[in-house]
Amino acid sequence: MQTQEEKLHATNHYLYYPNEENIPPYLAYGFRPIFLLLAPYFIISMVLWGLVWSGYLNIPFMDNVLIWHVYEMLFGVLTAGVMAFLTTGLPELFPGMVPFVGKRLKYIMLLWIAGRVSFWFIDITGVYLAALLNLAMLAWLIWFAKDVVLDKLQRHASLGYILVIIFGIEVWFFASMLGRSESDALSILKVALGAIVILILLALRRVNMEAVNELMEDKGIDDIYVSRPPLTNLAIFSVALFSIVEYLYPTNSALGWIGLATGAAILAITSDYNLKEKFILNQPYVIYLFSIFILLGLGYAMMGWSILFNDGVGVSSFRHFITAGGLGLSYLMVMITIGWIHTGRHLTSNTYTHLIVFFIIAATFMRGLIPFYEAYAMQLYLWSAVLWSVPFMLYIKVFFKFLLSPRADGIKG
C-alpha cells in the first residue's frame, strides 16, 4: 500500500491532467490503448508470418510478404512503442506538459490503425496512401516530442534527434517503393534497424534507471543504479558504423570485425549492473533487462562471425537475435514496466513475467540457430513464430485487466 507521501509524489506528474469528462480507462493515458492493441497485433502478425514463411499459407493481396513483415515489425510497431513511451514519459520529464488522453488519444490511435491497414493492403490502395498515413504518424510523434529537442538542458534531446533520422529513413524507404530511389527497399530497412536499435539503447538507459531503482527501493536495497553514458555512446557509435558499412559494402570482410566489435560494445553495457555495494544480478527485472543486451550483442557478434568465417551464410537468421530477441524483449519490458508502475502498482515479478522472458529467448534461439539445423528449417520457422507469440498472450492475461480499469492508487491516468 502506498503511503500518503508516495501518493502525493505520484500526483506531481498529473497536475495538468485534462479536465475532460467521462474519459474511459482505456483512453485515460497514452500507453493504455497502445498496449491493448499492440499485444494482439504482435500475435496476429507473427503467427501469420510463420504460416506464410513455412509454406502453410498464401496471402494473395501481398506481392512482397517479406517487405511487409520487416516493415511492420520495424516501423509499424515502432510508432506504437514510441508513442507509448513518449506520451507516458514526457509529462513526467517536463512538468506542465498536458497528458495526451481522451478524444485526442483516440484520434491518433485511429491514425496508427489506418497506417497498419494501408500497409497491409498497399498493393491494392497504393504506396502513396501508405506513405501519407505512416509518415504522418511519425511526424506527429516528432512534433509531440519537440519539447525534448528544444529543452535548453538537452537532457533527452538524443531521443528527438534519432526520431528525426528514423523519419528520414522512412521517407527514403517509401521513395524506393515508389521507384524514386535506386536503393533496394530491404537494404533501407536494414539501415532502419540500426537506427531503431540506437533508439532502443537510448530508451533503455531511461527504462533501466526507472525500473532498477524502483526495484531496489521496493526491496530496501541501499544503492543507486546509474546508466553510464560512455558505454551506451560507444555501443551507439558501433551500431551506426555497422549499419553504414553494411549498406555501402555488404560483402566487405571488415564488416565482420565491426560486427564483433559492436557485439562487444553492447555487451559492455551490462557492467552497469555491477554495483559497488550490492549484488543485483539475482533480481528478476535486472535479469530481464540484462537479457536484452545479451540478445542484441549476440546478434551483431554472430553476424560478424558469419561474415568472417562462414561466407555470410546465416546472417539473416542471426539478425533475429536483434529483432525478435533484443527488440521484442525491449518492447515487452516497456509494456510490463509501464503496465505495473503507471497503473498505480509496484513493479512485480511472478511466474508470468518469468515465462514471458523465457519464451521470447527460447523463440529467438529457435529462429536464430536455423543455419545449424537446416533440415528442420520450416518447422523451426513456424514453431518459433508461435512460441514468440506466447509472451504477448500471457501479457494479455496479466495486464489487460489493469489497462481496462482505473489506477489502483486512485490517481487520474
From TrEMBL:
Tagged with keyword Membrane: yes
InterPro entries registered for this protein in UniProt: NnrS
TM region positions: 34-53, 73-93, 128-145, 157-179, 185-204, 225-248, 254-273, 285-308, 320-340, 352-370, 382-404
Matching Pfam families: NnrS
Segment forming the signal sequence: none
Superkingdom to which the source organism belongs: Bacteria
UniProt keywords, alphabetically: Membrane, Transmembrane, Transmembrane helix
Name recorded for this polypeptide: NnrS family protein
